[in-house]
Amino acid sequence: MSNVKKRKRRTRNLVLLSVSVGIIVMGIWFSGTNAYKFMKGYLLFKTGDANTIMTSTATPELKDTQKKKAELYPDRPKIGDMMGSLSIPKIDANLPIYHGTDEDELEKGVGHFAGSVLPGERDNSVLSGHRDTVFRKLGDVGKGDLLEVTTEAGTFTYKVRKVRIVDADDRTVIVPTPRPTLTVSTCYPFDYIGDAPERYILVADLIGSKE
What are the beta bridge partners of residue 185? Predict the structure, then answer.
């Protein structure tokens, strides 16, 4: 066999090997990251029953989280619903909380970001409000101060762990957290005229609850 034919064969074998390795790697990645979502979406499309899928395929930890959520809030609020109140003893404030953060909700009180968990649940519950209405004095609240949220599930007391000032488009405000957390956000600086370029953030940990 000529050297040219040998080189062509080696090149073809190398290409086939590379393609095979690529397929294996993609398969491992897919099974590790997207297989569950794909299966859930497909079965939901075929059966229309997400609860059955979640129950049959969820890990024990996920099932426990779902059970706790169901126990706290058997009925989830809808956008626009008044879902509770936020009390801030430091500034003697007691403010209504509405589910959603559109202008309709923020005009009436504090808005609860619908993509976050409800107060008292494990993970990050995010509240927002206007600096020139409900949160005029929020700048006086800092590390160590208490925030109390009352909903149909009870009263949840949080202690401010950290104060952050971030850019207006900083999405780390709504990142998931491993423990029950309350994040309260408003525009900053407080005396800014027009659309403020930054956000004043209080990050608080759950330290107690009562029904």
Answer: 128, 201
